[in-house]
Amino acid sequence: MKIFLDTANVAELREAVAMGLVDGCTTNPSLIAKEKRPFRPLVEEICSVVPGDVSLEVVATDFEGMVKEGKELAQVAKNVVVKCPLTKDGLKAVKYLSGEGIRINQTLCFSAPQALLSAKAGATYISPFLGRLDDIGAVGMDLIRDICEIYRNYGFKTQVLAASIRNPLHVVDAAKAGAHVCTMPFAVLEMLMKHPLTDIGLKKFLDDWNKSGASI
Ligand code: G3P
Questions:
Q1: What is the 164 CA–ligand 1 centroid distance (Å)?
Q2: What residue owns the CA closest to ligand 1's atom 8?
Q3: How far is the CA of 64 from the centre of ligand 1 (A)?
Q4: Is 140 helix (H, G, I), strand (E, B) or coil?
Q5: Residues 131 and 138: beta-carbon distance below 8 Å
Q6: Is 26 in the pocket of ligand 1 (CB under 6 A)?
Q7: Count of beta carbons in the 10 Å neighbourhood of residue 45
Q8: 78: domain range?
Q9: How far is CA 2 from CA 39, 53, 70, 133, in A?
Q10: 157-187 pLDDT tens trace
Q11: How many A from CA of 162 to the centre of ligand 1?
């Protein structure tokens, strides 16, 4: 499973990329706004730092606007994937832009039928929002499983990108369900590395070593 960072923060991206753990990045208008930087230089820097795909989202909501913005965003760098919302106009834009050779991440997916239509429209990635479904008392992971099963049944090439990830359990369950990609905040990536028994074990090893007076 590929790991993407769900952030527009260049410092976080640089740190995770330097560790060799990041395959790509997803942004959205809220994450971009948080950075308080001019849009174009910010996304150009992100695209140069990240070794793989970088999702940049349109803000237009009508078909013509999404197509216009999608074409502009695709010019930013070769690794750009244009993010379009899962609306009627968004599906139309996915069909059109993917026909033009522009790769699309269809975002704000909350149901299996939405995901089926997105794959038929030719999306490169589908982004089901796990955490936001959990937030309203639904089981977000059921949606990931359903989409993986439907795509497998018909050999759709659209990759399942598990989004709105809040904790390590989401990451493990998405991997077990067969999601192709999991995009997570930097804080969740750090959580994946940590275990209290690792820290306790390391301290014990080093205490014993230091008491022995040995050296390497
Ligand atoms: O980037 C889309 C998605 O991952 C947003 O997550 O935490 O705002 O629900 P969240």
A1: 4
A2: 164
A3: 25
A4: helix
A5: no
A6: yes
A7: 15
A8: 2-212
A9: 26, 11, 24, 22
A10: 999 999 999 999 999 999 999 999 999 999 9
A11: 10
How, if at all, do strands 104-109 and 125-128 pair? parallel
Residues 146, 152: Cα–Cα separation, whole Å: 10
The domain spanning residue 182 has which CATH number?
3.20.20.70
Kindly list the distances between the CA atom of residue 156 and the CA atoms of 15, 51, 214, in Å, as whole numbers in the listed order: 34, 25, 58
Model confidence pTM above 0.85: yes
Hey, which residues are catalytic here? 83
Closest listed residue to residue 126, CA positions, set 106, 140, 143: 106
> pLDDT, tens digit, for every residue of 33-54?
999 999 999 999 999 999 999 9
User: Does residue 118 have its Cβ closer than 6 Å to ligand 1?
Assistant: no
Ligand 1 centroid from CA 163, angstroms: 6
Query: Using a 6 Å cutoff on CB, does residue 57 contact ligand 1?
Result: no
CB atoms < 10 A from the CB of 175, how many? 13
Please answer whether residues 189 and 5 qualify as being in contact, where contact means their C-beta atoms are separated by less than 8 angstroms.
Answer: yes
> Which of 164, 181, 184 maximizes ligand 1 atoms within 8 Å of its Cβ, making it the mutation to test the pocket?
164
Ligand 1 pocket residue status of 105, Cβ below 6 Å: no
Number of structural domains found in the chain: 1
* pLDDT per position as a tens digit, 87-98: 999 999 999 999
Cα distance between residue 148 and residue 125, in whole Å: 12
The answer, yes or no, to whether any atom of ligand 1 lies below 6 A from the CB of 120, is no
